[in-house]
Amino acid sequence: MIDLHGIISAYRGSPELGALVEGRTASALTFAGRYRLVDFALSNMKAAGVYNVDVVMQKNYQSLMDHIGSGKDWDMSKKVGGLSLLPPFGFGGNKGDYSGLLEALLAAEPYLRRMKENNIVIMPGNLAINIDLKAVLKSHVGSGAGVTIVCGEKGNEKCHKYVVDEQGDVVSALYQRAGAAVEGVADLEVYIVSKSVLLEMLDFAAAHMRYSFHSDGIAEYMKRGGKVHVYMHDGYTKQINTVADYMKANMDMLCRANRKSLFPVERPVLTKDRADVSTYYSEESKVINSLVSDGCYIEGTVKNCILAPGVHVGKGTCMENCIIMRDTYIGDNVTLKYVISDKYARIETSRELVGSHNIPVVIPRGYTT
Amino acid sequence: MKKTCIAMLLAGGQGSRLYALTRNVAKPNVPFGGKYRIIDFPLSNCANSGIDTVGVLTQYKPLMLNSYIGNGQPWDLDSSDGGVYILPPYMVEGEKGSWFAGTANAIYQNIEFMENYNPENVLILSGDHIYKMDYADMLREHLEKDAALTIAVQQVSMEEATRLGIMSCGEDGYINDFEEKPAHPKSDLASMGIYIFNYQKLKKYLIEDEADPTSSKDFGKNIIPNMMNAGEKLWAYRFDGYWRDVGTITSLWDANMDMLSPDLINLFDEQWPIRSRTAVRPPHWVGDHAEVNHSIITEGCEVEGTVENSVLSNSCIIGEGALVTYSVLMPGAVIGPGAVVEYAIIGENTVIEAGAHVGSQPDGSEEWGVATCGPNITIGAGAVVAAGAMIYESVEGK
Questions:
Q1: Of the candidates B170, B131, B141, which has an alpha carbon nearest to the alpha carbon of residue B5?
Q2: What is the mean pLDDT of chain A?
Q3: Which of B214, B330, B344, B348 has CB atoms 3.0–4.6 Å from B359's, for a disulfide?
């Protein structure tokens, strides 16, 4: 029995994802064709034997709930413990968005106080990563630290950074907008926190109404003399916060090394299985450098694309650098370049839609054009 | 609890005519059509027809089949008052247990299982056919015609009729004659081996037949002729949809090739989905130098060579410069760079190393056939496997 409880934070709004998060939260975004971003956190926890998991949600979480369900696809549907979906929890003066991770965790406070485990792993729901959480826990326990932060050499532009000593313990921290110019390793936003330390942080947050995990949680803990440890992870990692992130991360999946890093056979990424049929390629089809899910019917030319399940590509159609979500119908003689198409979209005969690598054309869900 | 109809699926046979492919697994567990295994067709048909209780009779090498079926969840057959049950032969007090002596004996040994559900009717299926059929429609006719037994039949050519069980019907539509592999068939209606029995009648004839020491304990040879001779009403349910037996290498390969023609059997039909238990693998990847035409590709595959007119199950790897044509690749097959696989079946996890050549194009000769490499072996670099070969063990490279 692994001494680790799981929290997936799926509450943050992502305004820079625009139409892609119309009616859904970033954690529910389709990724690499058949997955949703939350599958990584769920699968990594399952692989480590963590079955008691709480998912903290805030807005537009219907499709996320529908995808996760009882947690059965990750073996988290248990009679005792298992997965809990936590929609927003109003309390005290809370009026709207959780203003920091600690406020979101206060929503799970009853679960956290009651839990038997001595450690908690916190992962964002919109992070593409494949990491051995058992190894992270071992490192955390071995270091004697109250908080262990998983870091990489490089992170997002606005990530936090830490300078560490030879034991991997944090010497100094720089929060937000640190950028590449500053030295230190990049915070990937995966944390293991000891139960007692986390409860201290929550008490502090509630008492002072200061909810930032970094400046109010970690920094205050370090001021109290606490030890913070860093675990280095060198696999492919990407947190999806903008349309450009989304485009790049998906296209990165066309590279075999990245796929091997995110989808290793020994730690598979599991998802809700839709039981599609295998994909059919007609005699006129031509596909190059693309990732194609099951259930597709391909009669045209597809280059550098990612296709979700159930996509139909008509005769004479040419598509390049596109990300097509599930059950999209693309008719005959269509031209598409740098297009992201949401679910159930219909693109009729002879349409031409051309975007560019940093301004793709986004077709909203269910649109017919 | 009383059920209108439960299903008993005969999945115990050895499938010996598939040779290396069934050396270690039962035939119903053999991969098919990319995503599936043969048993997915009758199981999905049951689920889609509203039959919620299915007994699967296993006997030969059942381990992989048992874990494949599990609790029946992929076919939505995991309910609290029904479900899928694996029924192997078992011991009874005072006697040694006995293996299933024939198709009828297998069902006879499981009368206690059927009694649990006290069904009005029992559907008997085999696990070796590829087809989509609404059993509820067959049951409806069975009840309408007040039959003791309804047999599903399909019209075949007179030449094919000489190799099958043939039903002849009277003017009222009820079956009045039954011949096994007749030299001069009296009709063109072949039995599909799919039966719906009135349960009480089934029990009666099974018990009587079990007491007959000269009987082969077989439905076709014993139970059906006995019922007919006793004057029971036997109805022929005509089915004209796609239906294929996949008990030989040639027919297995043919049926896989049929999957490339969506007109013959539409697997994309959302009204009648065929489900399977699948490993969750990432979407398949088609590389920069790959060419895929008129083929079926399943998740987890990585294709860098040429694939034409072929059916690939999950996680197949096709190396650069390799050519796979008119072939069937089972899950995990690896085709090395520059290798050629034509008119062949490659078993699960088998590796065809660089430059090897398996199978060849039909040349009209008697000896030509589909080449088969069994599962979990390696065909060494540069080795040649002739058309029609059946390879059980690894072959050294040149």
A1: B141
A2: 90
A3: B344
**Residue A91 pLDDT greater than 60, yes or no:** no
CB-CB neighbors (< 8 A) of A34 in chain B: 282-283, 299
B290, closest residue in chain A (CA to CA): A288
The CA-based angle A281-B257-B318, given to 5 degrees, is 55
CB B371 within 8 Å of CB B344: yes
A114 CB contacts (<8 Å, ≥6 apart)? none
Indicate the DSSP class of residue A277. P
Burial B282-316 (b: 16+ CB within 10 A, else e): bbbbbbeebbbbbbbbbbbbbbbbbbbbbbbbbbb
Work out the average pLDDT over A103-120.
89
pLDDT one-digit tens code per residue, B59-109 = 887 788 888 988 888 898 888 788 999 888 877 776 666 777 788 888 998
| Percent of chain B clearing pLDDT 70 (strictly above) | 98
- Rg of chain B's alpha carbons, rounded to an integer? 22
**What phi and psi values does residue B258 have, to the nearest 5 degrees?**
-60, -30
ipTM confidence score: 0.85
The rounded mean pLDDT for chain B is 91
Is the pLDDT at B14 greater than 80? The verdict is: no
Q: Which of residues 53-112 of B touch A (CB under 8 A)?
A: 74
Q: Comparing C-alpha atoms, which of A4, A13, A198, A8 is closest to residue A98?
A: A13
Q: Is the pLDDT of residue B238 over 90?
A: yes
Residue B365 contacts by C-beta under 8 Å, 6 or more apart in sequence?
none
- DSSP-derived 3-state class of residue B300: coil
As to burial, measured by CB atoms within 10 angstroms (0-12 exposed, 13-18 middle, 19+ buried), residue A224 is exposed
Binary contact (A291, B297; C-beta < 8 A): no
Evaluate if residue A280 carries a pLDDT over 80: yes
Residue A14 has pLDDT above 70, yes or no: yes
Could you say which of B280, B281, B293 has the minimum Cβ distance to residue A281? B293
Residues 6+ apart with CB under 8 A from B246: B30, B32, B38, B128, B129, B130, B252, B255
Q: What is the dihedral of CA B347, B349, B352, B358, to 10 degrees?
A: 10
CB contact under 8 A, A34 and B287: no
Quick check: helix, strand or coil at residue A19?
helix
B-chain CB neighbours of A256 within 8 Å are 285, 302
Reported as a single tens digit per residue, the pLDDT across A197-213 is 999 999 999 999 999 89
**Nearest alpha carbon to residue B56 among B88, B101, B22:** B88
* Structure-token pair, residue B114: 């059927």
B12 backbone φψ class: left, alpha, beta (φ>0; ψ -120 to 50): alpha
What's the 3-state SS for A280-293?
Answer: EECCCCEEECEEEC
Chain B environment of A285 (Cβ under 8 Å): 292-294
Of the candidate ranges A176-190, A289-303, B132-146, the one whose mean pLDDT is the lowest: A176-190
The angle formed by the CA atoms of residues B281, B309 and B325, to the nearest 5 degrees, is 90
Q: B323: which strand partners? A: B306, B340
Spatial separation of the C-alpha atoms in residues B395 and B398, rounded to whole Å = 9
pLDDT at residue B43 tops 90: yes
- Taking the C-alpha atoms of residue B173 and residue B188, their distance in angstroms, rounded to an integer, is 14
Confirm if A347 and A361 have CB atoms less than 8 A apart. Answer: no
Structure tokens at A17: 């994802």
B268, B278, B312 member nearest A297 (Cβ): B268
With b for 16 or more beta-carbon neighbours within 10 A and e for fewer, the B232-265 pattern comes to: bbbbbbebeebbbbbbebebbbebbbbbbeeeeb
Instruction: Please give the pLDDT value at position B279.
Output: 81
For chains A and B, CB pairs below 8 A equal: 101
Distance CA A304, CA A293 (A): 14
Answer whether B30's CB lies under 8 Å from B252's CB: yes
